[in-house]
Amino acid sequence: MEKQKKKISEMLNRKVFIAAVLVLALAVLGIFVLHQPQKPVEEPEPTAEVDDQEYDASEGIINADEYDGTILAETEDAGREYIDSTLFLGDSNTARFLRFLSDDDKTAFTTIKNTIGVVGMGVDAIASLPCMQFSTGTFTIPRSVAILQPERVIIMFGTNNLYGSSKEAEGFAQRYTQQILAIQKAYPSVDIIVASIPPVSRVRDYTNVSMTQIDAYNKAIVRMCEENDWKYLNTAEALKDPRTGFAREGMMDKDGLHLSRQGLITLFSYIRTHAWITEDDRPKPLSAIPAVYGVVPDLIKVNPLNNEEFTEEPAPSETPEPQSYTVPSVKTLGELRSWAKDKGIMISVNPSDAKDTAQIQSLSPGAGSEIKEGQTIKVTVKTKAVFTVPAFATESEAKAWEAQTGIKVTIVYAESTQPAGTVLEQSAAAGQSVEEGSTITVTVAKAQAAESPEPTDSPAPTDSPEPTTAPEPTTSPEPTETPAHTHSYTSAVTQAATCGAPGVMTYTCSCGDSYTEAIPATGAHSWQENGRVDASCASPGSITWICPVCGATYTETIPQLTEGCGTETPPEPTDTPPEEPPAENTEG
């Protein structure tokens, strides 16, 4: 028994000793660790907080059987010819068609002649925003379609309308319908195809854009197409991961919203293999197409998805080094546009309505500087001098004024009882304003022909030898007098007046003579929505409106919510601005 107790005591002492050694070792280790330099803890990459926590990808699937004849089915590859005969209309993703190189022939997917892609543009501006530049002026999308006369259009808007919620899908489709009808009215022969809104990546910069809303909007678009006998191009199915419903890996650029080069290759492959080719019923012969200069740069200043000002769009990933050019030394805007049009270089003109004949005042970057494709040259042109027409009394006064001002004065002579050289009429009335380079016509009394004196009777001849008879002279025909030309002018608007600038009415006679008159500025802005912050129970909201013609803006306040607080139902959006903005907020 004593031996057993002694053995137990030894075991306990051994355990206490081992425990003490372990405690001492841990203490020493702790002191060592505390005295070592600490490495910073690497935090995980932040992910976007999105409104897709309960997103169900199966809810976004569109059943093609329900829309037989509306959704374009798979076809043979229609090739590059199909792309070149199609006009693409859309937002920044469409603008990227010009900036990336395709996979087959290493050229851009489209050209400025079949692409109207406006960064930041939503469906509500399709029929109201002048955005496409031609040598004959800048026009809205419907008018541009009529000028370009394509066989078909593929319309790819909707991403910039994702600032609301999925509950607004039907209202969005109704507004979209009205804008597309404006295109159809402008050029009834065009075939209309509407593409789906592309998906976004699961992790993305735009946290308020959700796949739930995109799927709801795409379902509304396909119903819209069925109701209006348009075709639906379900491009989203080529870009989506069928398991998650979000964009497949590699389809989107690093912001998760814009298509990457690989995404564009996938998109165009789908377009070519889901083609819609109908009998070409366009009126023949096609009208001559003026020179195409492309989309006006920097039209929309505020990003509708985050209400922040646009900065220069970052260069897309996987893009080859852009080609460099030297800015030429040219005199007129037309010469510069001609140089730039095939180089992927944009021209921003001040004033924006300047004609090709306008003289260049300054360039940025200047002549001789290096510029790369995709960049913009800012041009300031000389504004024409304006002169007030006096009341001319004589031809010499009119000629002296011509020499002084450079305004061409065409003199027309007419029969009159007034003294020769007296001004009888002038095409531009006294006090009227005319621009440098204009022509006016002045009608002047011409000198009257002098009358021949009556012959006097000759005295009776004295008797003299009979003279030999002289032959009778032949009588010269009386000269016919060319009657004075009377001008008959026809008028045409050669430059439309806008809210901030006067227009020009040109009067032309069949003889080639012409003159111009100023058309007063309309003073009426073309308001379109440019940004929105929804009201809530905690704060009021706002809508920002912009006139795309002159750049005037104002902000309308949406009252703070007082009813329905505590629910998640957003206030109904306001789709149209009031007739006139508050005077204190109007610019321009």
What would you say this structure looks like, in words?
The model is unreliable at 1-8, 30-50 and 583-588 (pLDDT under 50). The chain has a five-stranded parallel β-sheet with strand order 2-1-5-6-7. The chain is elongated. The protein has ten helices and 26 strands. Helix 5 (169-186) packs across helix 6 (211-228). Strand 1, helix 3 and strand 2 (115-117) form a beta-alpha-beta unit. The relative contact order is 0.09. It is an alpha/beta fold and 588 residues long. It has helices at 2-34, 79-84, 92-95, 141-148, 169-186, 211-228, 236-239, 261-272, 333-340, 395-405, and strands at 86-90, 115-117, 132-134, 137-139, 152-156, 191-195, 231-233, 292-295, 302-303, 308-309, 324-326, 346-350, 360-364, 370-372, 376-381, 386-388, 408-414, 423-426, 433-435, 439-445, 489-495, 503-509, 514-519, 528-533, 541-546, 553-558.
Task: Offer a concise description of the structure.
The protein has 588 residues and is α/β, with parallel strands linked by helices.
List keywords for this structure.
single chain, 588 residues, alpha/beta, five-stranded parallel β-sheet, three-stranded antiparallel β-sheet, 10 helices, 26 strands, 21% helix, disordered N terminus
- Low-confidence residue ranges: 1-8, 30-50, 583-588
Distance between the termini: 111 Å
SS elements, strand count? 26
Mean pLDDT across the residues is 80
Described by the principal axes of the CA atoms, the overall outline is: elongated
Total helix count?
A: 10
Radius of gyration based on Cα positions: 39 Å
Give the strand content.
15-25%
> Helicity level, as a percent range?
10-25%
Structural class comes to alpha/beta
Strand order of the largest sheet: 2-1-5-6-7
Quaternary organization: single chain
Major β-sheet profile: 5 strands, parallel
